[in-house]
Amino acid sequence: METDVPSSHVPEEKHKLNKTMKRTLIILNCIMLGLGNCGGPLIQRLYFLKGGKRIWFSCWLLTAGWPFLLFPLLISYAYRRSKEGPATKVWSVKPRLFLCCAFIGLLTGVDDYLAAYGVSRLPVSTSALIIATQLAFTAAFAFLLVKQKFTPFIINSIFLLSLGAVVLGFHSSTDRPAHDSNVQYYIGFFMTLGASALYGFVLPLMELTCKKAKQVITYSLVMEMQLVISFFATAFCTAITREAREFELGQSRYYATLVSNAFLWQFFLLGAIGVTFLVSALLSGIVIATLLPVTESLAVLFFHERFPVEKGISLALSLWGFLSYFYGELQEIKKKKKEVELGSVCT
After folding, report:
1. 344 exposed, middle or buried (CB, 10 Å; 0-12, 13-18, 19+)?
2. Residue 23 to residue 186: CA distance in whole angstroms
3. Which of 89, 96, 190, 298 has a CA-to-CA distance to 38 between 20 and 30 Å?
4. Of 134-138, 212-216, 224-228, 262-266, which one has max mean pLDDT?
């Protein structure tokens, strides 16, 4: 649990990652990101389809699962205490980092409201399509904030994933809910687009926060940061509602829906911040965009939304783009190994 992640202000020997541990954490965070990215929108949409009406309450649920983080943090603390002794700190976030995370949390709260409003007005397939545009925003802000380098493979991956989203747009007009007016639909459309742009800014901002932090970034610290971010986002979106009795699936399933919603979105948030700090904000954006067709397919399965040929093409393009990114990363790793080997031969 105490794996170090690079910070630009920390001596290099203090933050070298164990390769096996780093790969394990990357895979684990990608899985969490995938579960949250696919399951979160479905449960959130289910809430509105079966009688849920509170937009503020829905956006509150997106980050209300932050208490779940207390369990892994307690396990991490117990592990560190067994190695470091009674002097082990329970809380590692310093005031400067805390304020940065609080600010990101408030931005996340705004993003949650925009996204929740969009989901309340749009079918999963349409909202997922719009949210896929966050990859372009993430790439642009990653270039501006953290000087992200773009290889031909990364550019190809972004192009393919963006093309997959465009292909999905060919059928989006047929997904418009019959009970929504044109004004409601377009407000939902632009709210969701705003959420996509804002989250495309938040991911690189989190990466920049890590790089500028004047302390060693460990995975335990990443979880603490996520707790602070989620707490302030939840505080921004705090609301009280009474609608369990009117929920179509019954009161017990109403509360199960709320808990599942909060749990899955916490998976998404922790997975996103984990992948961002372990690799990059761009990879988080690529994973989110790649899973768009999966979310669409699940919406077809559970909500009986249409699955025209465009969705199949989009799925193929997304998988192609995802493989292109990882093939490019493998090529970069091989290139660096050869450079190291040549350097050792020359010396």
Report:
1. exposed
2. 42
3. 190
4. 224-228
